[in-house]
Amino acid sequence: MTTVVARRMAGTSLPIWLVLLLVFAVSWVAVAIHGGEFVTITNLQNMAQRSVALGLVAIGQTLVVLAGSLDLSVAYMVSVSAVTTSVVMGGAPANILIGCSRRWASVRRSASPTAW
Questions:
Q1: Which of 12-16, 78-82, 93-97 has the highest mean pLDDT?
Q2: Per the CB 3.0–4.6 Å rule, which of 13, 55, 76, 86 could disulfide with 91?
Q3: Is 59 inside a domain boundary?
Q4: CB count in 10 Å sphere of residue 27
Q5: What is the DSSP letter of 2?
Q6: Which residue range(s) make up the domain with 16?
Q7: What's residue 25's pLDDT?
Q8: What is the count of structural domains for the chain?
Q9: pTM of this structure
Q10: Does residue 58 form part of some domain?
Q11: Terminal CA-to-CA distance of the chain, rounded, Å?
Q12: In the 8-state DSSP scheme, what is residue 40?
């Protein structure tokens, strides 16, 4: 009986939910220490609205992978969109130039920019 339960627990998404709960609790404590309010209707709506773009990209990438392909250009397009958005929103030109140069260098080296 124990092995059946262990096998069933190994195939569930319980660890993912526990990590999500842990991140939520740590965020709540961090905001409370600095005198803010984390769990408000406005803040929860804001987090939900900001996560829509990432969710749409994740759904699209999942469909591509399930179709038997692996399209790595999605990450590139998300990066280009982020840089373009920061330009439109008035980001600092020096920071944008640094980000573009790092991205260009990582594409030329075929490596992730977080690897260096």
A1: 12-16
A2: 86
A3: no
A4: 13
A5: H
A6: 1-50
A7: 92
A8: 2
A9: 0.43
A10: no
A11: 48
A12: -
In a shared domain, residues 111 and 81: yes
Distances from the Cα of 88 to the Cαs of 23, 72, 91, 93, 96, in angstroms? 31, 25, 8, 11, 11
What average pLDDT score do residues 75-95 get?
A: 69
Task: Let me know if residue 38 belongs to a domain.
Answer: yes
Average pLDDT over residues 29-44: 87
Report CA-CA distances (Å) from 62 to 17, 53, 67. 19, 14, 9
Rounded Cα distance between 87 and 94, Å, is: 11
Place of tokens 């709960």: 21
Q: Return the higher-pLDDT residue of 12 and 29.
A: 29
- pLDDT value, residue 29: 92
The Cα 86–Cα 88 span in angstroms is 5
What is the pLDDT confidence band of residue 37, given thresholds at 50, 70 and 90? confident
